[in-house]
Amino acid sequence: MLTIKNLHAEVDGKAILKGIDLEIRKGEVHAIMGPNGSGKSSLASVLAGRENYTVTQGEVNFDGKELLELSPEDRAREGVFLAFQYPVEIPGVSNLNFLKTALNEIRAYKGLPALEAKEFLKLTKEKQQLVDFNANLMNRSLNEGFSGGEKKRNEIFQLAMLDPKLGILDETDSGLDIDALRIVANGVNKLRGPEKSFLLITHYQRLLDYIIPDFVHVLYNGRIVKTGTKELALELEEKGYDWLREAEVHV
Amino acid sequence: MTHDITIPFYQYILEGGNGLTPKEDVLYATRQDALARFRSLGLPDLKTEAWRYTNIQRTLKEQPFILQQQPLPVTASQVAPAAIADLPCYRAVLVNGHLQPELSDLPEIKDITISKLSEASQQAGFKAHFDKHPHLADQPFAALNTALFADGLYIELKKNAILDKPLHIVHVYTLSQHAFLQPRHLFIVHPHASGAIIESSVGLHDGVVAFVNSVSEVILEENAELWHYNLQNTVQDSRHVTHTAILQQAYSRYHHHNFALPQANLIRNNLSVALKGSYTETDLHGLTLVTEQQHVDNHTFVDHLVPHCNSNELYKGVLLDNANSVFTGRIHVHQDAQKTNAFQQNNNLLLSEKANINSQPQLEIYADDVKCSHGFTVGQFSEESLFYLRSRGIGQEAAKTLLVNAFAFDITDQVHIPALQHYLTEEILRYVTRN
Fold this sequence. Notes:
heterodimer, A: six-stranded mixed beta sheet, 12 strands, B: 435 residues, 2 domains, ten-stranded mixed beta sheet, 9 helices, SufBD_N (chain B), SUF_FeS_clus_asmbl_SufBD_sf (chain B)
């Protein structure tokens, strides 16, 4: 589904990603771990199309399309969803109106008619339950005055509503208490399926107790330096990231 | 302040104005005084402090304007575009300032008078308040209006009267040649009375220009309440200088909502409030959404004369293309006006590199126990917000529209009539998506 080949990217002339290779097949859950500044969130940003990143080399194929040639909105319409590390507050745009606009733009792109109000509300109710999202927040301005946990839940709720092929969770677990983490993880687990893939970006192994990944990659200094299964996450938790510095010397 | 004015229009007004009012007119002396005042004040130019960002003389010398234009025949279908969908309301249709009862739907409520101003000159309210507002005395355009106005609307809500539906005042302009129109209105809300007024306009002229110099005096007696919506859209080839002068007595509440939207070439709104009684509430809200070469200048003045009054002012601007916006917010808190709360905010969203905004707060505070604040911001779209919306599949244009609406929300949200709020949100959407 997603094939990243030799991806290099920079911000303000500074190289951040230095040759990433990654293959995510349908239905797989991949976790990317690594210390601060290793390029984890940058990878998520480049995949979603954030404009201040410049791709200098490499290619990304998503379900047969050259992802890097698409606008951010077209990437979303093709089925890439980025759950933000810091979801944006937009006063004056209601959650409901925002979701309706997004959903219908995606449907229009696929040649589908806009959802009837009734169907939309039904879908909304169903997906709210998935992440235990407070229905009262729906009519409020997008993320405005939401707690950290509510914002992250809203990200997963949006993911459930927009039903992408690939969900990228950028440090969704950071700043979450254990209850909120469980709710978010449960939501993701319920959404898992043979047609949907996930890329979990996290600093902590804790998330992976709740969402069991198929593969764990370690990102360091803009490169994937190690790939394994969920046991690798435990090993990282135990040893920290310091050993990577030594490992890199030998690469 | 007197300036040497050599433009022909000025001479033309002085000569033409002299002959317009017959000697037997009850206002003959008032008009002669006003004309003399106008002569001594002169037309403002860019050296006049209050007009330094709006070159009004340039818009006057382009062509000869006639000073009076009798209304041409207007049909109901020509007025229909002004209607606000699903809004239950009364309607007063004015053509070039002249009330047209057959096109109107006026309330038949005891204690509510709506008539031509020209028919109200014997009313006690007229005698007590006409041309008496303290802020009009030094205003050249207001003086000119007093000297030359043809007619306008007189509204009086007597004691305890309630206007059960909003009154929609539709100003229709029909011209056969360039015309300088001067409507004049007087609204009096007596103690404990309340109502809502919505003003909007329709321009039926084509290929000629309307210069509209209007003055409205609004009197709120004790504990009276008025919602006053002013929609400035849909009139092309027009320039507007308005002066809305409000006088508030104790416990009265005045809510002003101005929407300066595309079409008119130039809008200069003078909005001034004299707070004569304590414990009043004054809300001044404005949304300026300007496109192309439009120039909109909101000049506001809140005069806190007595203690314990609250004024709250929020103006927002969305600027596109080569548009120009000016905001002046003057607040004067007199020495006696202790316990004043006066807040002012002006926020702008610049959506074009060629658009221009000038904003100037003017706070003069002579009392020592007051809460006053002012603020000004100018910004562009937040890139992060835009990216967030796009990352959810919302196209760049739709995302910008959402963000403009979000920016305007603080103002539209204050509109307390749902159908009007919906109408305005749609209007804003229409102008933003067109760009």
